[in-house]
Amino acid sequence: MKKSLPFILVLLLLFVSACSNKSNGNEAKTGDSDHPSGTITVWGWDVAAETLKLSVEKFKKQYPDVEVKVEDFSSGDLYEKLTVGMAARGSGLPDVVLMEDERIPGYIHQFPDGFTKLDKLGYDKFKDEFNPAKIASVQDKEGNLIAAPWDIGPAGVFYRTDYFEKANVDPESIKTWDDYIEAGKKIKDATGAKLLPIDIANYDGVFHMMLQQQGISYFDKEGNILLDSDEAIRAMEVIKSFHENDLILNNSGWDGIVTATVNGSVATVPYGVWYAGTIMDQAPDLKGKWDVFYLPGFSEGGTRYANVGGSSLLIPSYSKNQSAAYAFVEFFTTDEETQLLGFEKFGLFPSLNKTYESPILNENSEYFNNSPIFKKFADIVEQVPEITLDENYARGSSMMSNTQAAILLENKKVEPALKDAKDQLKNEIKE
Amino acid sequence: MRSSKISSKIWIYVLLLVGVVISIAPFYWMIVGSTLKSGEIFHIPPKILPGDHLAENFKSFNDSLGIVKIFWNSLFIAVVFTVLSTLICSMAGYAFAKFRFRGRNLIFFVILCSLMIPYQVTLIPLFEMMVSFNWLNTYQAIILPSLASPFAIYLMRQNMKAVPDSLIEASRVDGAGELRIFFTVILPVVRPALAAVSIFLFMSQWNSLIWPLITLNSKEMFTLPVALSSLIGMARIDYGQVMLGTALSTIPIMIIFLLMQKHFISGILGGSVKE
């Protein structure tokens, strides 16, 4: 005992001293809307947070009195912290927060007064500088701008040029999903590779792209469920015929898709533009062997465009320094150079229209078979159909994954399965 | 007769061997993975032998997060927490086991009941409390709230009940004060239980994610689990880094557990049998 007491005391002392040198007081100093000042905190993730950090330098030239602190979490962690902070009436929240577009309606629904309406602060004058589909995804139901649009994910089909050559398939000839399936059969015979990866029980992204091509999502503007619509049936029939022809690599999750991309077990990956960055990162050896074509349509001449992912910046209404937060958000999302910085460094595809004129976005990519893949994506941005992201989006998505599994793996019929899914989702939402 | 005995033994060993391989393989893969480049991890067939990317992974992990600081954070928090919490819980357990006071059983019952409250329920009020203390992003926000662990108190109480009253009475007769009795008589007797409780507390703090995640904001304050979780990007994951980080956070726990597992098991069983 005599020996251990001093030891414990020392530890206690150490503890107290470690605790006391820390004060985390928010500076109360703020400016007015003409001269914002003070310190703001910004939450982001991954390469987006890096971009936010890199933008601060130029921002400070315009607003020398504002200090910006960017804090970086993984997106899942960020949502967790944001939800807790919102539930705790704004405790410990940052002044600006990054959010995926599909999450925005859910947060607005759960915390209706949680975020500042940006049109009040003057953001409405930028409305026309972005494509309408993106603007639609950052508005609440009354049409107020809740978030400032940043990146988007126009979708295309990434494909292995060598596999296509070996099977003697011309990607240009793939115009409809039926063509795509025929091509898939040929490629499989020639190379043994499956056509595309889908985590059947957990990922309905391909299905949702097909819905968006046809101009709908899981819900319409009034919140009606569209899971048993003709569009949904058509889309699910296509996915079913992928499966019947044994063209789907049923792998698990994000890691599964990356695995398949790297080890060559699939010939194509339909995904958003940002997947280009992942391919380059994880499969440097496959340089020159990837390229992109647009999503096949449901009929010849049908829409071939959709969007996967994308994120925007929001200002929690609890932020004590609204003027500085807004100054940063406005600068960051509307400054062409800053937007191109994120694209050039990390492949974050901007939604600001004027960036599409820039040379970096139009040049040929050495990795992607020397084709101008980003120009291909930029060209379709305007034509991506506008859809409603409902607050129950996540529920719709998981319901569709389950239904997809029931149809493909348990041989349920498409139409009754989708009808059941609709009824079940309706019940879930009512509760 | 003899040969059948041997062959059945062989079968048992083969079965055990399969079990060993199954339980060791993920750890082995984790270590191999931490020496590979991100893309290499997905190669088919998988690479069984370690690669040459360990130094690079270490460097990029260190560049993005600062290994030393994060290790120190985790270690400091876990050690201080374990020492304080073990002390508090064993004192509480002693009081519940050996002192008679009004409401003793009721208070003990309430403490046990608090085991039934899911963590998520207390999360938000506790978080608000930390914010109003201005304790966000500090060590004490992680260490203090969970110091009194109901499970540890329960375990200590059960173990201390097994200590004969006569031992305490004899010490009192000899003129020892209460604190002295506790530290010099009681604690040495329940050493296995102490070991078990401290391993349990250390592991729970070392691995804890949600609470540190919510209270810590800056990279310099991150603990290992929070740092690992922050490595998972949206579209880009450097799997080599993740594997290395996981290996780094697992190895200390494995060492501590292997060193102390004897105490751990006997401590858990300690309260079950009364001599």
TrEMBL record, chain A:
This protein's name: Sugar ABC transporter substrate-binding protein
Record keywords, A-Z: Signal
Upper classification of the organism: Bacteria, Bacillati, Bacillota, Bacilli, Bacillales
InterPro entries given in the database record: Bact_solute-bd_prot1 (IPR050490), SBP (IPR006059)
Membrane-crossing residue ranges in chain numbering: none
Signal peptide: 1-22
PROSITE patterns assigned to the protein according to its UniProt record, in alphabetical order: PROKAR_LIPOPROTEIN
Name of one Pfam family that matches: SBP_bac_1
From TrEMBL, chain B:
InterPro entries with a match to the protein in the record: MetI-like, MetI-like_sf
SUPFAM superfamilies assigned: MetI-like
Keyword field: Cell membrane, Membrane, Transmembrane, Transmembrane helix, Transport
One protein family per Pfam: BPD_transp_1
Domain ABC transmembrane type-1, residue spans: 71-260
Membrane topology annotation: Multi-pass membrane protein
UniProt keyword Nucleotide-binding, yes or no: no
Entry's localization field: Cell membrane
One GO BP: transmembrane transport
Record-annotated membrane-spanning stretches: 12-31, 70-94, 106-127, 139-156, 181-203, 239-259
Cellular component aspect of the GO annotation: plasma membrane
Domain of life: Bacteria
Family: Belongs to the binding-protein-dependent transport system permease family.
Protein name: ABC transporter permease
Taxonomic lineage of the native organism: Bacteria, Bacillati, Bacillota, Bacilli, Bacillales
